[in-house]
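To the team - thymidine-5'-phosphate complex, inputs and output below.
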Amino acid sequence: MNGKRTQLYEGKAKILYQGPEPNTVIVHFKDDATAFNAEKKAVIEGKGVLNQRISEFIFTKLNDIGLPTHFLRSLNMREQLVRSVEIIPLEVVIRNVAAGSLAKRLGLEEGTALPRSIIECYYKNDKLGDPMVNEEHITAFGWATPMEMDDMMHMSIRINDFLSGLFMGIGIKLVDFKLEFGRFVENEMMRVVLADEISPDNCRLWDMRNNNAKMDKDIFRRDLGSLVDAYQEVARRLGIIQEGETPPRSRPKLVKSDL
Ligand code: TMP
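Output:
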């Protein structure tokens, strides 16, 4: 299936191919998992399919409420067609509850509710380990304009409100998550849309029905058990997979014939 495609880029969890139509890109979700800037690595069969399906579900809902995203449509269980955008080199993290690097940096106990949601920006640069930056750095170095920052902050707040409610309704606490945005030109105007993915790989999701058990990539980062089982439970509660259904974990294999 991947035979004659032009590969544009390979990242830690995804591969991008040139799309079949102008200004489109195919995103292929890999089973690779990395943590701590790829110091820890594994292949977790089934993760790519689950992330693609969860991200498709969330991006479709966001498009439906008028929140612009790069998502066009899913092509199969593991791949989606998206609008080609220039990725803004920032990781925008929205936090509702203290956890991870914030808990460590400020000496807060994980699970402490924050007085209000907090948005942080990190400069997307693996060599530097994605350092935290503020609006001064971002606009001075031209990574994003003040108007783009405004758009991203407004969209982040809307996405947080929407997703917090969506997850709350299925007994899951949205502790924090990471967003990426892209820009493209439309009618001679630069537009900013949500890009990348939203999946348990880049969210912290805690199970309110089970003692705040982790249902996200912290299971891999901290060796807490089966990541696929947890991601499957998230997909099941969202209604993406049915009770009892186990989605295919690997791509179809060639069966050797005796003939
Ligand atoms: P942090 O607490 O490690 O800073 O992570 C905050 C959120 O961002 C968490 O939901 C995981 C997500 N995240 C990514 O998606 N990619 C990353 O490289 C990092 C460090 C965090």
